[in-house]
Each structure stands twice: as C-alpha cells, then as structure tokens.
Amino acid sequence: MGKILIVDDDPIIGRQVSHWCEAMGHECRSVAHLRAALNSMSRWTPDIVFLDVQLPEGDGIEHIPDIFDRHPSVSIVVLSGCAEGGCIEKAFDAGAVDYMVKPVEKERLKAVVGNLLKMQEKTVEKAAAVDRCGIVGESGPLERCIEQMALAAHSEGNVVITGETGTGKELFARALHKNSTRAGNRYVVVDCTNLPDTLAESLLFGHSRGAFTGADRSKKGLFEMAHNGTLFLDEVGDLSMSVQKSLLRVLQEKSFRPLSSADEVHVDFRLVAATNCDLAAMVEAGTFRRDLYYRLNMFSIDLPPLRERNGDLELLARHYVDVLCRDAGREPLKVGSRFLGALHKYDWPGNVREFLNVIRVSVFKAMFEDKLNYFHLPQNIRMRTVMAEAEDKGNNGGKVRQGSNDISLPMPDELPDLKQYRRDIIDRMEVEYLHHLVALCDKSVKRACDISGLSRTRLYELLSKHSISLRP
What we know:
The protein has 19 helices and 18 strands. By secondary structure, it is α/β, with parallel strands linked by helices.
C-alpha cells in the first residue's frame, strides 16, 4: 500500500484522484494549499505527490524544491490544464517524474501510481544497501543523487555525471564502480584535459612494437586496461572532435586496433563520464558529437553545488575535522558556533574541494588549541562574513530593535523612496519573527520549518541574511 498526497485547490479533482487511488488500496490525503501539504508532510511521508500548477500560493512547479526539502525520495507528478511544451519542460526540469494534463484519465493514473510505487520500492532497497565510499551529507539534493547512483550502479548503461567544479564527480564515479558488478575489476581514469591529439591514440588504443620512434615494445592502451572494469573519462567535454570519433567507434563496435597492429582487440567496459560543461549546449554549438552524446547519456546524475546542500555544511565540517585530526594523530577539535556561522555565509564557488581546503587550513592554524574558532578561518572567508553582516546592517539602517513593533517614519528630508522603505520594514519584521522562532524551535531545524512553514532553503537564507543562529 502506498501513501499519496493530492495538492489541488479544485475539490472535484482532489476527490476524484483520492477515490481512484483508495480503490487501488492506497492511503490518500487531499489538500487545497501548498502550506497545508508541507505541514502534512512534516508528520506523514507520502510516496507520491500529485501537484497542481495553479495554487493559491502561486505556481506549484516553483515550490517543487520545498517538497524535496521535506522528502527527497518522493515522486512528484504535476497535474495541469496547460498542455504547452514550455510548462511541461519546466516541470521536468524542476524534478517532476511525470506530467498529466487535466482532465485526468483513470487508467493512466492507475498505471502511473502502480509503476512509481514499484520503482520506489526497488530504489529504496538499492539506496539503503549502497556503499557511499566517503560521500558525506544527508540533504535532499544529495540523497536524490545517491538514489540515482544506486540505480545506475546496478545496470550496465553508460553514465554522465555533471556538476560544477569541486562538487565530487570523481568521488561519485568511484562509488558507482564500487557498487557495480564490476567492482572486482579495474577502475581506469582518463583525464581528458591532458589528452593531446598527438598522444591520444597511443594512450587510449595502445601500440605495437615499432609503431613509432621510441616504441621499443608493445604497450596496452587504457581501453584494453579497463576490460571487464570501469573507464572514467574526467571532463569529457574537453575531448577533441577526432578523439570523440575514435571513442564513439569503440563504444559501438566494442573493439579497436592498436597502432600498427593487424589484430582487433575486443573490450567490455562500463563507461562513466564527468563534465562541468553543458554537453547538450555543446551539441547544439557543434563542439560535441550528437551521436556520442546519446551513446554516453544513458544515465545522468547532476550533482548539486555545495550552496544548495542545505544542512550538509555542519556535517561536512565535523567529518573533515575529525578525519584531519585523526590523520595528524591528535585529539578531535571542537567546532565553534561562529566558525560554523561563517561557513554558512560563504557561497563556496569551489564547492566541496574548496571547503576541504578551508577546513585543512583552519585545523593547521589550531594545532595548539582544542577548538576551532572564527579567527582560524582564511581571510577571504572572514572578510565575506563581515561584509554580509555590514550589508544587513546597512539594509536595516542600523535601527533594528529586536522585539519592537514600532514603525517610525524618518524626517521628511530623509524620507527614502517607497521601495526602500518597504524593504526596511520587511527586514525588521523578519528579524523579530526569526528571534521568536529561534526561541520556540529549541535548536531544531525541522521544528523551525514546521512552525514557520518555510523550507530549509528559505530558512537558512533568512537566518544568514540577518546573522541569526538557530543554535546560539
């Protein structure tokens, strides 16, 4: 039996979908507002959410991230009277698994529910058993990537891992190999950024003795070395067109001929590629082969940047601090609250790679102490924290009084424009609300979200904006 939540302000649609799902033996709840749905999800975990587009709170598609923040493994099916391609594309880009145009057809709904519940059951089993291989975090975006990796690992299809520099693409590729049926065989890495055309054929295909000057013996190429294992192409978007053509032939034929050899070599490897480029855009621009793109992109895992992994910063900080202290043979360092607060105020353009370097520098600076504090952080992190605090004070005119409802007008010659005045008042109200919220939630992020109706993303944005800590 599955749990199904219908979010639609049309009571007829809500009753109809609920009736059909209950007749299939599933537990259903129907609400008319997104806020009611999020409140319900804090106490009840649905397997499937049927989400209307036109809701009292606005466009339902724009609130899909809020739903994933509560339950990253939920399947979202959008219900809409809009049949335009742009709306459908927007829904899938946001993470919806299907899109149903109203009026809803009973047989199609039954098929969608049955298939999604079966898939979820298998996905949960695979994700629970997966070896994370050092991947740290429990945020919604990261958990969805873990589930995708678990599914891909148990197939033989090629995989493309995308994401900004430093998001952990190679770590995911190694974890995928470790969890696959090829784990006992070789994992071969090819750095495509350092693969010049003049050496590519020799490195990838290998060569026979005498193939060129200096080739005094035969040598296996990387394709042959990866036989029965996994071949990882790092930054595949940097491959030249000629190397792309050679790679495509190997993937199609599963064989190749080393340089100056008359014999074909047959290979069987799983290909995992990673890139921080938009391969689809490169295909349209003519800089990446369309046929190779489709050959590679059987499974796709898009890793989130660190700034979108809400709640993972503290976990990552404590994990890496403990690892670095253990490697240095010293007692684990405590982590100060202002140290963590500064980490949250920074946007981490270098992602996890930059984060690890910052933690490493901070631990080194604290070699004679027992606790990491704000001043152990590198200068650029401390400077960004001060700038964020100064910016907040500037926006509020330095006049915020905690716990006050006073809204006083400035002198006529100091009167700002209405837009700025409205912004200042909203800032004051936010500060007062957040201080009350902190007092009530007892340091619990989940309780704060339940009380306020905010997503984790929005809550952290507001706390960071006003330099307020949930854990004083």
